[in-house]
Write a structure and sequence with these properties.
84 residues; 6-stranded mixed beta sheet; mainly beta
């Protein structure tokens, strides 16, 4: 399991995006735009989220960002406990 060391929201409007770093030094990036969200580690997509019936969705639904990290086997600790 990888561990999230830091993360910050780089855009709170649409599209919502986040940048951070794992304890291994790898860079993480998450973005939600046009109903499609993804999580990358060093430019490799490791988790995806899609809402095909809402292609205008540009922000992660409550709790979805944290679920994406968990599905990629990344421990976030309390860094994403604000319902991201």
């Amino acid at each position: 399991m990888k561990i999230l060391e830091s993360i910050e929201q780089t855009c709170g409007a649409c599209p919502e995006s986040w940048s951070g770093k794992l304890t291994t030094g790898e860079i993480v990036y998450a973005r939600m735009r046009w109903g499609y969200g993804y999580l990358d580690i060093d430019d490799i997509t490791v988790a995806e989220y899609s809402v095909p019936d809402d292609t205008y969705l540009g922000m992660f639904p409550e709790g979805e960002l944290k679920r994406m990290f968990e599905s990629a086997d990344i421990y976030t600790g309390s860094l994403l406990d604000k319902n991201y």
